[in-house]
């Protein structure tokens, strides 16, 4: 099976699992316990926290709160920050941000959605137009999880602060962390990362915040994570997250070039009589979205699965919807949006896999097109 749905989740890195395995077995102790074994688990969590922060905040000035998922971290950033005024975000956000915005609307908060360009990146001018003196939070996804479009959150956050110095700026960085070079600027207040997109196991993620930025808990209880996220820490998943991130960042440049070659092979190899490339050339090379003209993407996905290739049709968190709201916001008509496939890579994918996948995708699409005549 050729797995090309890495934007949904990646296979856990075996070396990172081995590095953390002791905390799944003999070092199972609660990090809040007062005896020595508990303190050892606590120290492992703290070491992981420092290690993860160092990758994108080397100059310091940021803190990290562990959560169970990127969605939880997004929720905490939004519901903690938007308690007055209006919330500005984009039409291209991950469901964790978009559905949180809809919940805020149900609670009576005004939410403003900035338009997208055709590639899924935010229209920066429209975003800034929506920011005013009453804006409490602006949230812009770093790398669009459906098209791979990269938003310049350093420039956008600086521009937001120039217009309203009191507004907080959050970014969902789940598809960026460990994949594209980036260092957090002081104009970004809150930033979400997740383990399972970079070879970590599910159950570990984090919300990074600039020191001094107000943050309130979503989950109350024992006061773990300095009172910001109660619940006994998943030591194994946290330690494994740090080990996976260490490996990813040590080879980030090499992996980027390798994945860029895979992306190019798919772009140039797909049948242009059937497929339209939706992702821009300057998008994250880890994601390339395409549309099969006149074909149903979900039907093609199942054909590909039977033929040995696993891809997505968009965000795995919104797979029950026939049309992607993000693709519609990019300006695609329903006929084209119905045929979207998302092909996403990891560093372990090979050139041979990419070539074989292209051949299978072209063959299955041609077969489906013949049936629909």
Can you put this structure into words, describing what you see?
The structure is a single chain. With 373 residues, the chain is of the alpha/beta class. The chain contains 12 helices and 12 strands. It has helices spanning 14-20, 36-56, 70-81, 95-106, 124-130, 153-163, 235-250, 252-269, 297-307, 325-329, 334-337, 351-371; strands spanning 2-3, 62-67, 86-90, 110-114, 135-139, 168-172, 190-194, 205-210, 275-277, 287-292, 309-310, 340-344. It has a 7-stranded mixed β-sheet, with helices on both faces. A 3-stranded antiparallel β-sheet has the order 9-10-12. A two-stranded parallel ribbon has the order 1-11. Helix 1 (14-20) crosses helix 7, helix 2 packs parallel to helix 7 and helix 3 packs parallel to helix 4 (95-106). The longest helix has 21 residues, at 36-56.
């Amino acid at each position: 099976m050729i797995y090309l749905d890495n934007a949904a989740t990646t296979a856990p890195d075996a070396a990172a699992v081995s590095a953390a395995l002791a905390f799944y077995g003999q070092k199972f102790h609660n990090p809040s316990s007062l005896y020595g074994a508990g303190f050892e688990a606590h120290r492992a969590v703290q070491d992981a926290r420092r290690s993860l922060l160092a990758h994108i905040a080397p100059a310091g000035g940021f803190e990290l709160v562990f959560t169970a998922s990127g969605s939880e971290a997004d929720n905490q950033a939004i519901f903690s920050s938007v308690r007055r005024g209006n919330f500005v975000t984009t039409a291209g956000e991950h469901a964790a941000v978009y559905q949180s915005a809809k919940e805020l609307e149900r609670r009576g908060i005004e939410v403003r959605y900035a338009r997208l360009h055709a590639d899924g990146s935010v229209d920066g001018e429209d975003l800034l137009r929506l920011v005013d003196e009453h804006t409490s939070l602006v949230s812009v996804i770093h790398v669009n999880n459906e098209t791979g479009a990269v938003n310049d959150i350093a420039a956008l956050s600086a521009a937001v602060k120039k217009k309203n110095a009191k507004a907080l700026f959050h970014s969902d960085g789940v598809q960026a962390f460990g994949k594209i070079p980036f260092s957090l600027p002081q104009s970004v207040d809150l930033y979400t990362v997740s383990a399972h997109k970079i070879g970590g196991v599910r159950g570990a993620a984090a919300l990074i915040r600039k020191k001094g930025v107000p943050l309130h808990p979503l989950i109350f209880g024992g006061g773990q994570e300095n009172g910001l996220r109660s619940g006994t820490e998943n030591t194994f998943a946290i330690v494994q997250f740090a080990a996976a991130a260490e490996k990813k960042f040590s080879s980030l440049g090499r992996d980027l070039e390798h994945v860029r070659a895979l992306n190019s092979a798919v772009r140039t190899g797909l049948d242009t009589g059937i497929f339209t490339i939706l992702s821009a050339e300057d998008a994250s090379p880890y994601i390339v979205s395409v549309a099969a003209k006149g074909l149903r993407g979900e039907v093609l996905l199942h054909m590909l699965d039977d033929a040995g290739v696993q891809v997505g049709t968009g965000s795995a968190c919104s797979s029950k919807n026939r049309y992607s709201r993000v693709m519609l916001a990019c300006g695609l008509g329903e006929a084209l949006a119905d045929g979207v496939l998302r092909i996403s890579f990891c560093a372990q994918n090979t050139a041979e896999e990419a070539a074989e996948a292209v051949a299978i995708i072209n063959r299955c699409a041609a077969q489906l097109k013949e049936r629909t005549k």
